[in-house]
Amino acid sequence: MPMNRNLNLLLSGQLVSQIGDKLYLLALSLWVLEITGSPAAMGAVLFASMAPLVLFGFFSGAFVDRYNRKNIIIGTDIFRGFIIAAVAVAYYMGALNVGWVIVAEVLLSINAAFFNPAIPSVIPQIVTESNLTKANSKVQFIAGFSNIIGPVLGGAAVIAFDYGFVFVLNAATFLISAGFECFLNIPRLNPSGAATQKIGASVLAGYRYLLKEKRLLIIIFMVAVIHFFVGSIQVIMPVLASSLAGHGAGNLGLLQAVFGAGSVFMAFIISIHSIHKKEVIMLFTGVGVIGFSYLLLGILGIFGFRLVFPYLFPFVCLSCALVLAGTSFQTIIQQTTANEFSGRVFAIVSSVGNGSIPLAALIYGILLTYIDHAGLLFISGTILVPMSIGFYYVYGCLNRRTETDRRVEKFEG
């Protein structure tokens, strides 16, 4: 089977399920707030959807490397479809409550801890190395497109039908996604230690591999940095929108729309203009541009600009930089990680990234009570810009040392 057909099948399943997931998240959030009127209840649901994903990710990758990845992808999608179908049934029977929703979110999060690392681990098996960046940019495009269209469709579906309809629709999207994935033809990995080791030993082997590959540690740190600032902007954006002239909700909607459009635009550009062999410089450039965007937002606020339009450009730059950095780090990990370890590495990456977002929300939420948002944006930018330059230099040194060590080993061998 041609490799591009495999990628198209995988992306088709992702598109359907991610749009359905965004429908579900919007409907679920509205339903919880409607029946409880409590932001604390919504916080508990969000925590249940994140905590297992972060915790299980520190060892779930061993299963991704040990067992058939295609079966893991299909199985988790089917299981997620049945979980959400159960939520829909409970809703129509009048039995759905926040407790059951939290249980469902925990189960969905555990499934995601196995599904999420399996997807980027499979991509190097179905596309050539020179096409990795384009493949990853298409994944980013689907994520950005889903973030834009999903909430719009979700709101319309809730208004036109009811919450249960959206729950049923999302359950169907996971089953449709699994249907696409059934036709994947994923080459088998060469037998590795993960297939014969006990799970505990396999988990430890993954951490030893990471400690040996110090370049990967730098990349994982940058993943944490990128996701941390994704979390921070989610907290700052509503505060910034409310401080501007006009209606706060309208400003927020415009900023979010521009942010989403920038993500889709950059993902599309990368998909048609390859950055193959430029991923490292693009990663650290992306982080630097994130810093410059924060600086510009901070300067606009410090100098008292209260119209929303001057803020649109830095938000476009910010979203473009996040996609550029995200696509680049995923490709770098795929290129530098032995595929028999990629499940473990990507599971750790997922845990680190997903854990950084709520941590940032907590920290920035506290800081905003003491520091004006404009000053906080400016301070964040002044930290990020030199950090991107410094770690680019460190990564380059480690890369040269690794290449030298490999040439020495080859010569001695």
Protein described:
The chain is mainly α and 413 residues long. The chain has 2 domains: 1-185 and 194-204, Up-down Bundle (Growth Hormone, Chain: A); 214-336 and 371-413, Growth Hormone, Chain: A (Up-down Bundle). The chain has 13 helices and no strands. Helix 2 (39-66) packs across helix 7 (199-212). The model has no long low-confidence stretch (mean pLDDT 90).
List the keywords:
413 residues, mainly alpha, Growth Hormone, Chain: A, 2 domains, 84% helix, globular
Say what oligomer this is.
single chain
Radius of gyration from CA coordinates:
22 Å
Number of helices: 13
Strand portion: under 5%
Shape descriptor = globular
CATH topology of the largest domain, anyone? Growth Hormone, Chain: A
Helix content: over 70%
Structural class call reads mainly alpha
> What count of structural domains?
2
Q: So what's the CATH class of the largest domain?
A: Mainly Alpha
> What is the typical, i.e. mean, pLDDT?
90
Order of helical and strand elements: HHHHHHHHHHHHH
CATH architecture of the largest domain: Up-down Bundle
Largest sheet: none
The CATH homologous superfamily name of the largest domain equals MFS general substrate transporter like domains
In whole angstroms, how far apart are the ends?
38 Å
- Uncertain ranges: none
For the secondary structure, the number of strands is: 0
In short:
By secondary structure, this protein is mainly alpha-helical. It has helices at residues 3-36, 39-66, 69-92, 98-126, 132-160, 163-181, 199-212, 214-243, 248-272, 279-302, 312-336, 342-367, 373-412.
